[in-house]
Specification:
This protein is an alpha/beta fold. The chain is built from nine helices and 16 strands. Its EC number is 2.7.1.56.
Length: 315
């Protein structure tokens, strides 16, 4: 069972448009509404793979009620923490070439009591969890140290924790020694304070995060592939992708694939890449099901291509 924690979830509305033209009236060719938030997406991908998952998240107002209903419809067990504020709604516009424009709302401000209730819900519902995945930005009202507190709490209970966040929240949590952190290239560059131009740069940055406390680093390097740096060394994998339709939630799908495959080693890395490659070929923030995966498209290299220049340099 994989328990997910999403402190700032959302309803995600995605519109597919011919082109994004500022100041114009745009007509969508397709649209959809999905449960949103990084941890929510991890739960959705885990549930689609047939595994049990429990989503812990604050829910407020009509949007929060709709979010809970959408998750339940996907077979996800929900442990909602009632909050006074309104759950946020985000908007994404996707063009035919895969270019994505997002508008993310700030979300509600959580009170001290609501913050404690969220931590307590994780504590009481985490028995039997194989992994706890804590994902996304922190809402207003939660200090950057909130994730660090949660990591320490999870470890005291003897569970493993994967963390997907960025900025001060990631930096503060590293000292609590999360078992896995999953930055993308930009988040990795921000964490170490220097640009990443090659896969080798990413390897060095991931090593730095391990020195600061991360047990393993699973880094998404966009179209170039994914990098896993842990106590056993460095491994790199990539996948062929025919058409990119939307990259919303692709990193979350990757983390779900990694954890569903055990969260350790080259098998988990290959699963992460397969899930991420499948996700970018789906509309909106749809999460891949097993039928969407193509493990034969995944290439796990014998060596890490440290000299490979990133198609999208970071930092």
């Amino acid at each position: 069972m994989i328990l997910t924690v999403t402190p700032n979830p959302s309803l995600d509305r995605t519109y597919e448009i011919p082109t994004l033209e500022r100041g114009a009236v745009l007509r969508a060719t397709a649209d959809r509404i999905d449960p949103g938030g990084k941890g929510v997406n991890v739960s959705r991908a885990v549930a689609a793979a047939g595994h049990r998952t429990l989503a812990v998240l604050p829910l407020g107002g009509p949007a929060g009620a709709a979010l809970g209903d959408l998750l339940a419809a996907e077979g996800i067990e929900v442990a909602g923490v009632p909050v006074a504020g309104q759950t946020r709604s985000n908007i994404s516009a996707v063009e035919p070439d895969g270019t994505l424009t997002k508008i993310n709302a700030a979300g509600p401000e959580l009170s001290a009591d609501e913050s404690r209730a969220l931590l307590e819900t994780v504590r009481t519902r985490s028995a039997g969890a194989d992994w706890i995945a804590c994902c996304g930005s922190l809402p207003r009202g939660l200090a950057p140290s909130w994730y660090a507190e949660l990591v320490a709490q999870v470890h005291q209970a003897g569970a493993r924790i994967a963390l997907d966040t960025s900025g001060p929240s990631l930096t503060a949590a590293l000292a609590a020694r999360p078992d896995v952190v999953k930055p993308n290239a930009e988040e990795l560059a921000q964490a170490v304070g220097r640009p990443l131009r090659t896969v080798g740069d990413a390897v060095e940055a991931a090593r730095d995060l391990r020195k600061l406390g991360a047990g393993a680093v699973l880094a998404s390097l966009g179209a170039d592939g994914q990098l896993l740096v842990d106590a056993d060394g460095e491994r790199f994998a990539s996948a062929r992708v025919a058409t990119v339709r939307s990259n919303v939630g692709a990193g979350d799908a990757s983390l779900a694939g990694f954890l569903a495959a055990g969260g350790v080693g080259v098998r988990a890395l290959a699963s992460a890449v397969a899930y991420g490659a499948a996700a970018v070929q789906l509309p909106g923030s749809a999460m891949p099901a097993p039928m969407d995966l193509d493990p034969s498209a995944v290439l796990v290299g014998d060596t890490v291509p440290v000299g490979l220049e990133l198609r999208e340099p970071a930092g």
